[in-house]
Amino acid sequence: MSGRELWADTRLRAAWARQDWAAILREYRRAAGLSQRQLEPLVGMPQPHISAIESGRRHVTSAELIARITEGLAVPDELRGIPARHELDDWAPPAELRDRIAHAHRTGHADLRTADWIARVLAEHRRAEDEIGGRGLWPVVRSQLDTVTQLIPHASGTAADRLMLLAAEHAHWLSWVAWHEHHRGPALAWIDLAHGWAVDGGHTDMASWAQRVRAYYSLVHGDPVRALRTAESARHAGPRPLSPASEAAAAHQAAMAAAACAERDRARRLADEAHALALSTPDEAERPGWLYWLNPARARLQHADAAYACRSWADAAAGFREALPALEGFPRDHAYYRARLEDAERRT
Questions:
Q1: Which residues contact 223 (CB under 8 A, 6 or more apart)?
Q2: Which CATH number fits domain 3-80: 3.30.390.30, 3.20.20.220, 1.10.260.40, 3.40.50.2300?
């Protein structure tokens, strides 16, 4: 009987669910038809020790012994809490994507009408992710990205550059959702792909945004020094000047990182700069598509968040109170800023 068939045994699985190590050894031997002596090489213990565990005279408590038994009895990944390989693959970028990052100068025909349609659908997904999260939309967006990357090798010039921007936007979305679903490695891989496509296509705003997201990941992960360096590099992402909204996003992230580094004067200066830049483009049409949300109310909330990070509690509370009503349609963000407001008020 194979290991997988053994672990289909209901009594053995029930023992594992209880983490009853005496029962696990007994039920495994029963299902496999093994004696205690025959179990010795599997678990790396002599028969008297196995007997002591099964009789309750010895308890399994050490991590080393648990690992040895788990490996020796070939406990399936799903019982050990390890995601199946295909589940990990669902989150990580497929290997063939890297092969599709082709030079954009090959001639051919690209269906840009399809690309336009995909861009509109992605815009809808961004808004849906704000409200309900992106897990359910994940396979749809990955499929769309697959379509875009198949178009890139058959385009040239401005058409190829446009497709690369669309691919970068998709990769960024996938990175953001993967991060919030706690798939940190795949999130970093996706944001690196987004940055590469943005650079290859000459899209300075998207290259900056990808760097800004990288800075955010570093800050959340507890590395504010790296976050500050990355956010500052996002402010100088390419040969072309950044749009005001993109520069505002990068400056705000730099402010948050500077505050975490205890550089509060620098953080306040950056926060003021970010706020002014964001207010200079109040119309959504003037901002890159992925910054559709950076309206005056959001800019005020970000300015308050920087004040919170600088421990300026009264300023933070005033900013949150002023702008929070604008987030009634965004429950996740509303809950985040509401908690910040309540904490700032307590500290004030």
A1: none
A2: 1.10.260.40
